Amino acid sequence: MSISKKAETPRRVLAEFSYERAAAERGYTGQTLYVNVGDGTIESRPVTETMKEQFIGGRGFGLYRLWGGVEDDTRWDDPENEIVISSGPCGGITQYPGSGKSIVVSISPLTDIPVDSNVGGHFGPLLKFAGWDALEIQGKAERDVIVVIDGRSGRVTVEEAVEVPVDTHLVGHWLIDQMAESDEDRYYMSVVAAGTGSENSRFGCLNFSFYDRHREAPRFKQAGRGGIGTVFRDKGIRAVVVKSGPVSGDSNQPADRARISKVGSQLHREIFEYDDEQNQMRKGGTTYLVSIMNDYDLLPVHNFRYGSHPEAKKIAGDVWQDLFTQGIPDGCWYGCTMACSHAVDQYEVRTGPYQGERVIVDGPEYETIAGVGSCCGIFEPWAILEINFYCDTYGLDTISFGTAMGFVMECYEAGVLDQEKTGGLELSFGNAEAAIEVLHQVARGEGFGSIFGQGAHRMKDFFVEEFGADRDFVEDIAMENKGLEYSEYVTKESLAQQGGYGMTNKGPQHDEAWLIFMDQISNLLPTFEDKAEALHYFPMFRTWFGLCGFCKLPWNDVVPPENAETDEPQKIPSHVQNYVELFSGVTGREVTEDDLIEQSETVYNFQRVFNIRLGKGLREHDAVPYRSMGPVTVEEYESRAERYDKQLREDLSVDPQGMGTQEKLAALRAHREQQYEKLLDAVYERRGWTPRGVPTPKKLESLGIDFPEVIAIVERFL
Amino acid sequence: MIRVNKRTEVAWEEGITVTDLLEKLNYTYPHIIVKVNGELVRRHAYDTFTIPDGADVRVIHLIAGG
Amino acid sequence: MRVLSYAAGRCVACRTCEEVCPETFFDETSQDKSRIRIHEGRETHRAEFCNQCGECIDVCPTKALARSRRGVVRLEDPLCVGCLSCVGFCPYAVMFWHSDEVVPFKCIACGACARECPEEALEIVDVEEPLPLGA
User: Fold this and answer.
1) Do C81 and A261 touch (CB under 8 A)?
2) pTM above 0.80?
């Protein structure tokens, strides 16, 4: 195919920087790029040995650079807040599935503490191949800009955004048309963009592109969590573009390519042999989880009140397999044969500014289906696709949107809201049209959408102060912690996962810990010590993916049969060993399984201290809404009365006979809240933290991060 | 009586197989490890392996979220 | 389509093909770089090489694998990013990789081995459907 270029828009360069491209060597280029879009400073910053040894890359580099760039009182919309994007030393290898992830770090408009959001697409690896281990953006532009990093010519520019559209599906195509000089340029170019929704809400997301050679179009993956799209637009950035030139299997210059090729080809083979009988990621991605969660009573329904619904089959995996175009290698980075990044092609948009256009919808993934679907009582695939498309192109996080909408709909049904307060919208569960109208209002910054765009945490206060809502009720039912909306799993019967969410550094996202089946179904964590150990090991192990540029899914979404005979099958020991091989093979630093955990512990504890530095990160901030722990309302209790009554009898030695539901609710609640406190005690102790949740100087010293400014922060709370 | 995962009790029936038990519990996730009295039961034997009365059954689900 | 064909009854496992092949493509005789592999049996031997079935074409993320006009599945090296997806997804495990090489390799029915086979166990033929492995 030849390129037919559209008329070129003139480019007005505001700041410019030339550099000698450093090739990656053993996974690192040895420098990060600093761009200040406010004052035009652009410079190269060295990657030190401390950074490589203590912070590894990805989330570690992001937190390290952010720490150095902000003050104790920096908030999300201060110019000194940063957006840091980094993949990690293994990011960009092509031989092993799931090796192209990036982590974006910034101070979140939702939580006021650092958020780390992981995302696929080509940007992180191509940034490295353009010469940079990380991109650090600071400052605020007076007028909207784009940032262009061209590794082939060794030039970085900040340019005025002349005629550059804002919404992602437009800007992605537009920039490729404007800037690609050949087919090859399209392949090796990636765009980061947000959208108009990011301008008017706190839960803006970033879209990272990858060029789909089969569809001959840019596709997008989302750094969804924590509102980094909001920071991006607040800085006046419309897009960041990177061009790297050709990629090969050697671009990351691993120390021992044969070692990574060996485990890579083995994992491809496992996926070839077992994916079809296991999770069918290649056909449906994570959508298989919908029916599983429904069957096990874990699918959020009606704002997490319930865990299943008879209509869930309408939005289950087989429905999406029929809608997804099959037979295209849908990996979001080269060599990902798990290939979960499916798309619905030629979707005709039904509402809003793009009504009638035929578009590619990237996804939906499980979290989107459960969040904007079942959580809101919406079981219509078209509505989920419509919201998925608009959330992406407007630059909004589908998880925050769905969970916040569930909260709003429950408030509506409980009488906290009415049509007068919503501007005429009947926001009851299942009303897809009304939910979509709110989405458009968020993007326009109008009407009820401007309230909704503040997120669940701030809506609670608003509903209490302006609408006279009962404080206790909204505190109980709004599924948020630290200001971030929950991702989409019901945790009422899994104490370990209640803590998994509550103690997650950035707020309740499940990427650190997902222990529901181990705890609730398989009963592998019967004691507090067991739960604490799991809440040490799994968050550390899973954090590690985000230090190195890996995706979590290939770790355990396919498993070889011999795994059943291992001592700890839930850890997938043979795949853990693969990661030992990969890290050693790329960096040339021989590591063991224990080293991976320690690498994570360092970054994890640093992030906890960073939270404390910015005003959160203590025990009180790990508190969770009661909806995540147990039944809030009478009808919720009665929907599972048998289970709860049994628990009263067996665990509390209370006879539910003759007790009213309110009385039983209160007894159960007191018990569960007490259990949660005991869990925090056990986990903090296991992690080497004080009962207040503060990492001790001894712990920080053992991890090699007892820097004076770090110790000074924890000392205030000892 | 069959005890599953040291928590759930299921009434024993003559000839109950692993498949029958999984159906009763609505354990639909495909990727599991089943042990009956400590002995690993292979997937291909789920339809034929009969569970004795009083058995201690473990059904470990290998699933870790999205 | 043009494919390599193997007559097991004639093969004496002299391994000439395993030397000719790497010499043709890599200018060396290391057998682990051969695109044809002979496995010795007690009575008859068997061979592994690509039968041009084309399953790998749909697996390639960069469209580096395509069928030529003569029906041979070929890897266009400049497009290949060395991800080895095709190696793992080859139904017959006859897409090979080697630690020296960034990209994988396979039989392209060039006929070099057939010309040199002293027992005439190998030949290039035209077929409608892919042959079973090693036939």
Assistant:
1) no
2) yes
